[in-house]
Amino acid sequence: MAIKFMLSVVMGLPIATLTLRHFMTLPFGPHLDALCPGYKGTDLTGIVSIDNLLCKVINIFTHAINDPLGNIISWLLLGLFASVLAIWAIEGSRVKANALLGAVALWGMAANLFTVSALIFALWIPMYYFCYGDNNSNIPDYSIKSARATAILIAVLAGFVIPSMVMLLAGEPFSHTQTVAITLWQFAPLVVAPIYLFSTSTFACMEEPMESRINYQAQQKRRVADQKSAVETVHLVLGVMNAICYYVLLFRAGGRGLLNVETFVDLWTLYRDKLTAMSIEQTGFISASNFFLVDLVICWAGCAFWSLLESGFSGLLVLVVGSIFTGPGGGVSLYAAYRESYVQDNDRLVVKSE
């Protein structure tokens, strides 16, 4: 059995379990249990079990998004989720990927249901190493069509990034418009996969054909170079978008007096004993914002753990430094681009004769 698979299970399951336990014990939980379904106009389907679940999810999202600090965290979390979703789609589309690793819609919906932080530690990283094993030096295993990589970028932008922006910007706080936008966003991962699956052939038709005069070895090297460039483009585009968002948020947080360590420590610790006799709404804002903050940090830590397993301390350093200067999502995307220069390195490619 692969060592990295065993290590990812031993490390991932306890972290995921503790993370989920934290979410389940947040102070807002008992209030939602008592008030749902129907709290703040969330009785959308008329089916009690579904409305009960939607009520809890929507109220966590609305309270986080409509809180000044929670809103900033929401943008960072969804930016990171976009980077992670692109990685899942890319790694699930390579030659060696199995059907489960390639089921991006399933992974995305599971992340929405169980949180992306718990999922990446408990399931995705172990599944990745169950599929690929310890050795990431065999270039043919990491082959992916350039057209598929381009299609994934378009799919993530159209199917996830734009819906996320609509959700964060749509409607007045706690309005019906905002409620509907949050509800529809929960199904965004179901849209991403069909977009890139059906558009891959379109982008393949747009590629320049390989020149017949080039020998077989040169053709293979050019193919790998094109694939590497296409995947790097996916990650770099998302990295730049995350970086722009990151600096806008830093400016906004600074203007609101939120850009200090104490603010985030207080939120992380749920303000300990600093606040007493809070209303349901105050409890909701703090709990929901803490939920998103913990999800953000643990998801980023999961990506950092993967980078350490994949590329050692040099990969971890790229991710950490990148995150400092471009935000958590930007750092993860920059690492993914950096990693691609190894897994599809033309200098290491050995081409067998036809």
Provide structural commentary.
The chain is an all-alpha fold. The chain has one domain. Helix content is 75%, strand content 0%. It has 12 helices and no strands. It is globular, with a radius of gyration of 21 Å.
**Major sheet details:** none
Outline: globular
Distance between the termini: 33 Å
How much of the residues is beta strand, in percent? under 5%
- The tally of beta strands, per DSSP, is 0
The percent of residues in helical segments reads: over 70%
Spans where pLDDT lies below 50 across 5 or more residues: none
Taking all residues together, what is the mean pLDDT? Answer: 91
Structural class: mainly alpha
Oligomer: single chain
**Overall tally of structural domains:** 1
Contiguous helical run count: 12
The radius of gyration computed from the alpha-carbon positions, rounded to a whole number of angstroms, is: 21 Å
From N to C, what is the helix and strand string?
HHHHHHHHHHHH
Signal peptide: 1-21
Transmembrane segments: 72-90, 102-129, 149-170, 182-199, 233-251, 284-309, 315-338
Keywords: Membrane, Signal, Transmembrane, Transmembrane helix
